[in-house]
Structures are given as structure tokens and as C-alpha cells.
Specification:
The complex is a heterodimer of chains A (418) and B (290).
Chain A: H1 18-33, E1 47-53, H2 60-79, E2 85-91, H3 96-108, E3 113-116, H4 120-133, E4 137-139, E5 155-157, H5 162-180, E6 186-192, H6 195-211, E7 216-223, H7 231-239, E8 244-248, H8 251-263, E9 270-273, H9 281-287, E10 295-299, H10 306-318, H11 326-345, H12 350-358, E11 385-391, E12 394-399
Parallel strand pairs in A: 1-2, 1-3, 3-4, 4-5, 6-7, 6-8, 8-9, 9-10
Antiparallel strand pairs in A: 10-11, 11-12
Helix pairs in contact in A: 2-10, 2-11, 3-4, 5-6, 7-8, 8-9, 11-12
Chain B: H1 3-34, H2 41-59, H3 63-86, H4 94-116, E1 131-134, E2 137-140, H5 141-163, H6 165-175, H7 177-182, H8 187-209, H9 219-234, H10 239-259, H11 265-279
Classes of the chains: A alpha/beta (418), B mainly alpha (290).
Chain lengths: 418, 290
Amino acid sequence: MENKTRRGHRGSATGITRRTFATGVGAAGVMAGAGPFVATRAQGAALKVGVLLPRSGFQAGIGQDCHRGVEIAGGILKGLGMPPLEIMNGDTESSPDVARARAERLISEGAQLLVGAFDSGQSTAIAQVAEQKGIPFVINIAAAPPITEQGYKFVFRNFPTAPMLLSDAFANQKEVFAATGVTPKSVVFLHVNDTFGTAMQKGIGGILSKVDMPYKVVDTIAYDPSARDLSVEVAKAKATGAEALLMVSRLNDAMLLTREMVKQRWTPAAILSMGPGWYEDQYLKTLGKLADGPMSFVPWYDPNKPVSKQLEAALAKAHPGINLNTNHIYTFEALLIAADAYKRAGSTDPKVLADAIRATDIKDNVSIGPGVKFDAKGQNVWLKNAAIQNRGGKLVTVAPKEAANAKPVLPMASYNKR
Amino acid sequence: MPVEIYLNVAFNGLLTGLVYGLMALGLSVIFGVVRVVNFAHGEMMTLAMYATVVAFTSLGLDPFVMLVPASAALFVLGYLLQAGLINPFINRPEHSQFMLLVAVATILVNIQLIVFGPDARNVQTSYSFDSYALGSLVIDASKAYAAATALVVAAALFAFFRYTILGKSIRACADNYAGALVVGLDVKHLYALTFGIGAACVGAAGVMLSLIIDVTPGLGPAYTLLAFVIVITGGLGSMPGALLGGILIGLTEALAGLLFTPSAKSMFAFGILVLVLLFRPQGILGKKPR
């Protein structure tokens, strides 16, 4: 259908000039970046904590899950004798640029400490703002090593770096292979190409030759974490003939990949994930029996610690049917660190608060390891990771042996026979 | 790499491209007649996707059952939008129209965020995980159904514009605005009908896409941009061009992901757009402006 005549007021044959069209496309871009309002809530003379999470955009599912950790923290912190926190929520919209802007806004609105932001790219952006403004920033989840290698004085991370994650993951993988008697000789490595995925890819490249793994990586395939269709990626991975799949992903892409593997009739002997996605509740609920089998090598909680039990109970009460996971654990612990520092500092002065965080020594915590302490760079280097497996809609810990509550099962049951 | 991998990837790209084409067809129809660029196109598509998801999860209705009701609902929305909101802007400068539709898009995204939240939602039918094997070719059943439906809807649309009095009247408005007024055509009504038809098209595409991808409110702006890439590549205002553009972009994304790196597949789609703008600014099947 073509317009053959012009109406008088239009300036070109189509009625749309390139300049006006470009204006429109630009406007569409602005609209794409627009997001929901930031909500704040007052709780008297409490420490004002700005919590920055990706609560919309392609990481929204995980951001919302992290927020559950915020929701259940209040009661537990009170029970532990911690001072109150006033939570100021900020949505990073899954974008480092928005994360930076929201961090500045929260600080201008009075936030005395920042917590967040699940993602390495967004956390890096917030860390720059926090350091510049002199406001303490406690990272809940982000693994890219450079964040705590910049000499920052106000940035603290209670989460393993990519090399820490990987060295534990490879040790746990060997343990799983030995326990099941299934040792893949080849893997194909699929990873998201965001800050976290790239850091993990570099880390794997550096560590793999030193840890003497029984398999070789036959191909490495990077993809966009916001991709809507991963059929090509799965076709390419399947074509390598690899026995197992090594993954660094997010949530939506983990679900997309699983669907594609089912449709393309490919079940690897093992899916070995070294990041989020495969153990999330949304993954388990959406995919049902197709969610069974993948193993995640992740920072986890020690079920024997008293606070872990409290956290499990609080989550079960607030969100029945949702399994406690990394998102809740580390978001809660970030708030625990904030409250503990505020209690000891007795002041909201940012410098005093930062000094108090630096002197943190929490033993009554949730994550695996001796507790929360920071080195001179602001990194908790004492954290330990576990291997968990999806089984019947639940998550069981299969390694290390001392923290396991189930035996690993490999190879995975064929997707097309479930 | 075995040749069947190329065949599989290309065929799946073709199927996805056909659904893309149907989505872009709506944009092309609206622009071809009303000369308004619908910047809320992707957002209207996500409305249809959410309607499909809600109907499936709460009433158990299959997306194919939702095809007609969702398209009809989008038709009504499109008609009312044109008749009530866009018509007063028809003779205003283009940037006013752009901003109006960008505002509509923003409102739609935020309504979807308020109502459905940011989580990805999907339709998981009994055939969601099915695939057909034809020799070494493995065909995704959902994509095949969606592509076949896209072809049927597109054929119906072509027939409507070619063989019906109403379709010819709409084409008359597009071809000669002043002439259409002179012969007594109710141009405002025909414009509203056209916007409704374009919206119904994108509604049908949304229903079909819900079989293939998860819906989030953030999907709308991304698909608005994709629709533009497709119609500019195929030829803004050209209906066959929109379908061809969809197929071309679908195939390009798929094969570029296989031959180079999957993370760069969008780059190649935009590369095609740049080449088209450089060497054939009116689009592959578009006509040169007089």
C-alpha cells in the first residue's frame, strides 16, 4: 500500500522526514528507559538504607526475589537486637545507567547507606557513586572481581568473587562426578555477555588449566542476557557434541534454554551452572518436572545455623512454597551487616559507619563459612560455596559432603521421557 | 559444522521471521494509510500477549481460541484510539504525533507494570515443548503453528484490501487523500478502521508470539523498535515489504548467530537496516517518493 499523493502540511513524500523520524525513534528510546516510581517509607529515627535492586527489566524476577529478603529481614533483625532500618527502595531497571541515577537520587533523598544491586555492572555503577559521595555501600550479590580492587573506602562485598566461586565450583564438581560415577569428557560453555558473565568467562579461562578438570571445553558461546530467543545458541551447543553443559546465566535465559533443549531434543548428561537462574523458584515453578536435574554451584546457606532456620521460617510464613535461596540469603546478610555496623557505630555519620563495617565480625549469620569479616579491600574472603541440585521441585545440597543433605544424581533423565 | 544445523537454524529463523512480519504488517498498514507512525505498536502487542496469558492461566483457553477475541479487542482499541485521540493530531506536525504515541506507549507499559508486575509470564500449552522431526530437520511445533497462522492472517489481509469495497476505499484514502474526500468517502471513519485493522494485526501477532516467547512489560518498546527495523527494511507502507522484512530479519538473526556469535545477532539485523537505508532508502519493496 503506497501513498501516491501528499497532504499539504507534510514536508516530504511520505509525510515523515528522516529528521522527524529520528526524533520519534529517540523518543521511543526515552520511553524504553522510563520506569516506575521509587517508593520510600519512613520508620522514625532509623538508619536510612537505600536498597537498589533490578525490580523491573530483564532481571526483574531475580530483583523481586532479592526483595523478599528485604521484606523478611525486619523481624529477624529486631529479634537479634539490631536497631531499626528505614528501607528506601530503588529500582535499577536492570540497567547500570539507571542504577547510577537511582543511587544518586537515594543519596540526595537522605539514604545513609546503600545495599544492592544483584548485578555486577549495576553494582559497579553504584560503587562509583557511593565512593564519590562518601556513602557506605554493602553489595549483596555481585561477583566481578574489579569492584573490590579499586581501592574504594566505602564499598564492601559479602559475596564471593568470580575466582572464589569458580575454585569452589570445580572442587564440588569433581566431588559430584566421583559420587555419581558419571564424568563428562567434554562440555560446551554458554554464558551471558554482561559484566558478571564476562568476568566468569575470564575466570574460567584462567582457572581451568590449574584445576585439572576431567573435561575439556569444546566451545564457548556468549549470548545477550535479554535475548528473547535462544534457539540458535542451543542448536550451536548441541552441534558440538559435548556431553555436558557448563552455564553462567540469569533466570529468563535459563528458562528459555531449557525449553529449547526440550524442543531440540537434546539432554546433556549434566547441566553445571555457576550462577543464578537454574535454582530460582520461578524456574522450578514454571518448568515443573522439566526443571529437575540441573546442578548449581553457588554461594548457599548453612542450614544448621540458627539464623538460617529463622530465615527459612520467616520466608515460609511470608511467601509459602518459595525455597530459601542465594537471593534472599545475601540480601538479608547485607542488611544484617548494615544494622550491625549501625549498632556498633551508634551514628549515621558515613565515615563512622564505613569504619564500623570494616570492623565487622558477625558469626551468627546464614551463609556457609565462618561468618562475615572483610579484608582490607572490603571483601569477605571467608565465604564458601555449595553444589545444589533441582529434585522434584525442591533444592537439595549435594556437595560439599559435610554440608550435603542428598546424594547427587547424574546423568540427567532425558527431557523427552519425563 | 553439519549442514543440517544450518538448515534447522535457517528454518526456525524463517518461522520466527513470519511472525515478526505479521507484527510489522500492522505498523505498515497504519502508516501506509493514516501516515501516522504508531510508536505504541509493541506495547499494543504486549496487551494481546497478556490477554492470551490471562485467558490461558485463568480460563484454560488455548491461544488459538484467543486469536479472534484478542484481535477483535485490539481492533476496538485501535479504532477508538484513532477516532478519539489521534484524529485531532492528523494535521499537526509530525513531532506532535510522535510524542502523543510515545505517551500512549509509556502509559501502556506502566499500566502493564502495575497490573501484571515485571515478571516474565508465559503460556505453557500441551504442545509447548513439541517438535516435529522431518529427517534431520527438527521443527518447533509452536513456531510452526504461529508462522502458519501469520501466513493465513496476512493472506486474509491482502485479500481484504484487494477484493473488498471497504479495502478498496481504504486504499483510495491512502492513494489520494483529497480525491477520497471529493468522492465522499468518510475518511475519518476509514482512518479509524485502518488503525483498528493494524492493531488487530499486531494483536494476532501478539497471540502467536505468546506461544514462542515470554511476555514482560519491557517487551513492548523492544518490539516497537524491531517493527520499525522490519518495515524500514521492507519498505515503510508496503505490506509485502513488511512480511519480507520480517523474514529477512528473522533469517539474518538466526544465521548470524550461528555463523558468528549469538550475542551479535541483533547487530547484523541493524547492519541490514543501515545497508538498506544507504542503498535503497525507500526499503526493499518500497516505492520511491515522487
